[in-house]
Amino acid sequence: MQTQTNHETKIAHGKPYTFVPLTGCLDEHSLAEFSATIEPLLEDHHAYLVFDLGALDLVNSHAVGYFENIYRKLATTKKRMAFVNANTEIREILELVGLSKLAAMFDEEDKFVEAIRNGEI
Question: What secondary structure letter does DSSP report for 11?
Fold first, then answer.
């Protein structure tokens, strides 16, 4: 199963962010296509890159490594990354490997928007 990505620009409390819903599996087989979609987004002027993991069925070590690379690239331009809607299994993986310390994690997109509004992130 391949990962499907599309993205849209949204605004939260005056701050634009790129919202990227992911579906399917994110592994070594789908990573090249995913990367081709994500790399141009790293150059935009939005403060946040938000990945919606609600429809993501699988994430493996290749994907985790790529998320770490995304974090590093964003950090050089003072941009941030966040995850929303991760199921229990994927959330545990991201926490286990330490991605939850690099990127904010929220149960839903509304909680992300609330955190921006409250100045928490």
Answer: E
Angle made by CA atoms 22, 46, 71, in degrees to the nearest 5: 60
Each residue's pLDDT expressed in tens, for the chain with a length of 121 residues:
345 456 788 887 778 889 999 999 999 999 999 999 899 989 888 899 999 999 999 999 999 999 999 999 999 999 999 999 999 999 999 999 999 999 999 999 999 999 998 989 8
- Which structural domain, as residue segments, surrounds residue 44? 4-113
Which tokens in the block code for residue 45?
């002027």
The tally of domains found in the chain comes to 1
Question: Residue for token digits 């391949």?
Answer: 2
Rounded to two decimals, what is the model's pTM? 0.91
Residue 76 and residue 93: Cα distance in Å, rounded? 25
- Residue 105 sits in a domain whose CATH number is 3.30.750.24
Answer whether residue 69 is part of any domain.
Answer: yes
Would you give the DSSP letter of residue 89? H
